[in-house]
Amino acid sequence: MTASTGLYQVFRWVKYLTYALLSLNIWLFFSEELNSARFAIETGEEVALGVQLFSATLDTLAWVILLLLFELETAVIPDERLRGKIRFGIHGVRMLCTAAIVMAFLGYFGEWLTLLPSELLSGDACSRVTESWSVMIKLDDFMPLTAENCGQFGADTRVVLGLDQVMASPAGLLEGQRLALVDVINSAAWILVVILLEIEVRVLTRWGGASMPLSQVATFAKAVLYATLVAAAIYWGFKGDFLDFWDAALWLFAFVFIELNVFEWQQELRDQTSENPGIS
Predict the structure, then answer these.
(1) How far is Cα 88 from Cα 82, in angstroms, rounded to an integer?
(2) Alpha-carbon torsion 191, 229, 249, 268, what sign?
(3) Which of 201, 233, 115 is nearest to 163 (CA)?
(4) CB-based contact 175:136 (threshold 8 Å)
């Protein structure tokens, strides 16, 4: 085994380990969001209706499938076999994943909108203990209002109007709104990254336009989007939301492999074109 072959094997195993860890995150997000849903059911709250509790699970599942499809197309299945039923099958699954990703984005957006309207709590928080009120600690994290904790909430406590009988401290509500907005920005940025990758793979590469100004614009736009995604990951890291930080870091790492796959695929097509000028 040559040194280059050994490095390639390490590269491949690291890549697939990253994909496996991302698949594990599906279960981690589901477990986290399931706990929020159970709380909503047990307390009789309608939080599950006001907040799209399973947006992260749906989003991660769809992205993992989409990631594997990119891997199949750019690194596993030879170009000459990407035809007929295989091609239509991949495109069909991709369309379903795209629909799920858009739904998840709308869920994030709806969650953010839900947290925007609020008003000051009228009266004493402790007087509402018997009314099955809940307290939002942070995004997607609630606890029941009880006689033991109601004294923590003073005159500046906010009522979240978008949710049913939910209150929060001003700092907690603001933090929840910011985290929800970061979810929206992060989701939108990933969608735009994949759109640009699709343009590269479907249009620029196949039309031989890898050196065109449009390709340079796409590369610059992706750089801006990746910078936005890094900023979102750093924000989650500082705010102590480890699962979101870990997931974002893994996805950025995974897309390094996708970008390398696309680059190698583009190089192969350019080599084929130079050897056979009649191929377009």
Answers:
(1) 9
(2) positive
(3) 115
(4) no
Enter the tokens of residue 230. 């890094």
Q: Would you give per-residue pLDDT tens digits along the chain (280 residues)?
A: 555 676 777 777 888 888 899 999 999 888 877 776 665 555 554 444 434 567 788 888 999 998 888 778 777 777 677 677 887 888 888 889 888 888 889 888 988 998 999 999 988 899 899 888 989 988 878 888 999 999 889 889 999 998 888 999 999 999 999 999 999 999 999 999 888 887 877 665 555 555 567 777 888 898 999 999 999 999 999 887 788 899 999 999 888 877 777 766 666 655 555 555 544 4
Amino acid at 232: A
User: What single string gives the DSSP state of each residue in the chain?
Assistant: --HHHHHHHHHHHHHHHHHHHHHHHHHHHHHHHHHHHHHHHHHT--HHHHS-TTHHHHHHHHHHHHHHHHHIIIIIS-GGGSSHHHHHHHHHHHHHHHHHHHHHHHHHHHHHHHHS-EEEPPS-GGGGGGGT-EEEEETTEEEE--TTTGGG--TT-EEETTSSSEEE-HHHHHHHHHHHHHHHHHHHHHHHHHHHHHHIIIIITTTT-TTSHHHHHHHHHHHHHHHHHHHHHHHHHHTT-HHHHHHHHHHHHHHHHHHHHHHHHHHHHHHHHHH-TT--
